[in-house]
Design brief:
alpha/beta, FAD/NAD(P)-binding domain, D-Amino Acid Oxidase, Chain A, domain 2, seven-stranded mixed beta sheet, five-stranded parallel beta sheet, globular, oxidoreductase, monooxygenase activity, monooxygenase, FAD binding, NADP
């Protein structure tokens, strides 16, 4: 039996692709149900990665029905409020990077799986080797299960990763503050118009504000700052959030003031670039559990690519999970290392002294 820990985009995509190939798996998820907690904002699922996995999974049509082409719209400003770039997506534009609510993507994947594939309320506390690649899984509710292949798709704080290496996520020097404006078109129509249908970025030296119009009508607002760990703890009022943008144009500042505190403060953590481990029978990792990197919109896409590659490898090595893992891991690692380097380069641009101009050159392909 293939046991997948974590019902995020990577874990669910893997379960779906295994099912398409006639291979049984079980997903163990710590959430009590699919509605136990909000899933957060939007994901841009990209044509050359995440969308390819969904095509293999036979889910292209429902994905396109749920995704928002207009979510590719973008506005780029500097702290003075000067609009440097505005891109409005035509109605017939290619869906290269359409946005989809995390909840919608999760539901799409969940609904594609046989009943009982996902076991809810199963927080993994330990995995004990039984020999010959098998593991005994112990869950917080006192139950257990056995696996022939254990796949850690359980994110930054993976409980499976310690079976393979000692690496732990480290603070990347960047902290995000997140707030939300609910039902923005009704409650704050002027801000809904300001942000537009997609993404709104205002970038300054070492600091930026991003806002994103979600499919459910919420505008999510993020401030990201290069700062020591803990420097932004306690940001829980509109005044405190706005104070970070002292001197910025009032139209930009009013976005964070309009959010409903308290804000979520999220330090960004990363794993070492190019993280490697000695293969171990019956266990592997995908997604953030394997290659947590700076957040530039690629994480879910990488996890879904990992899922597609691993499912193909398992299907190509019937009865030989270790052979499948041996074929999968080098490809996953090389791609993740290359993408991690690109993400770091992009993040350096976003926090540079001339961040807005640097990103303008990036979007125009000017180097």
């Amino acid at each position: 039996m293939i046991a997948i820990i974590g019902a995020g985009p990577g874990g669910l995509t893997l379960a779906r692709l295994l099912h398409v190939n006639g291979i049984e798996s079980v997903v163990y998820e710590r959430d009590a149900s699919r509605t136990a907690r909000p899933q957060g904002g939007m994901l841009d699922i990209r044509a050359g990665s995440g969308q390819l996995a969904l095509q293999e999974a036979g889910l292209e049509a429902p994905f396109r029905a749920a995704a928002r082409r207009e979510g590719q719209d973008m506005v780029l400003l500097d702290p003075s409020g000067t609009v440097l770039l505005r891109e409005d997506t035509p109605d017939d534009a290619a869906m290269d990077m359409p946005e989809i609510d995390r909840t919608d993507l999760r539901n799409l994947l969940l609904d594609s799986l046989p009943e009982g594939t996902v076991q809810w309320g199963k927080a993994l506390v330990a995995a004990e080797p039984l020999g010959e690649g098998r593991h005994l899984l112990r869950f917080a509710d006192g139950t257990g299960a056995e696996s022939d292949l254990l796949v850690g798709a359980d994110g930054a704080n993976s409980r499976v990763r310690p079976l393979l290496c000692d690496a732990k996520p480290a603070y990347a020097g960047i902290t995000y503050i997140e707030g939300a404006i609910r039902d923005a078109a009704r409650t704050r129509p002027e801000l809904a118009a300001q942000v537009g249908r997609g993404n709104y970025w205002a970038l300054g030296p070492g600091l930026h504000l991003a806002a994103q119009h979600n499919g459910d009508g919420t505008i999510r607002v993020y401030i990201a700052a290069r700062c020591p760990k803990g420097a932004l703890d306690g940001i829980d009022t509109a005044d405190a959030g706005a104070a970070l943008l002292d001197g910025w144009h009032p139209d930009i500042v009013r976005l964070i003031r309009a959010c409903e505190p308290p804000y979520a403060v999220r330090p960004m953590t990363v794993l070492p670039l190019g993280l490697a481990w000695e293969p171990r029978p019956g266990v592997t990792l995908i997604g953030d559990a394997a290659h947590l990197m700076l957040s530039t919109g690629v994480g879910a896409n990488l996890a879904m690519q990992d899922a597609a590659n691993l499912a193909r490898a398992v299907a190509a090595h019937p009865g030989d999970v270790d052979g499948a893992v041996a074929a999968f891991e080098p490809v996953m690692r090389e791609r993740a290392t290359r993408t991690g380097e690109q993400s770091k380069s992009l993040m350096d641009r976003m926090f540079a002294e001339d961040a807005a101009q640097s990103m303008l050159r990036f979007f125009r392909g000017e180097g």
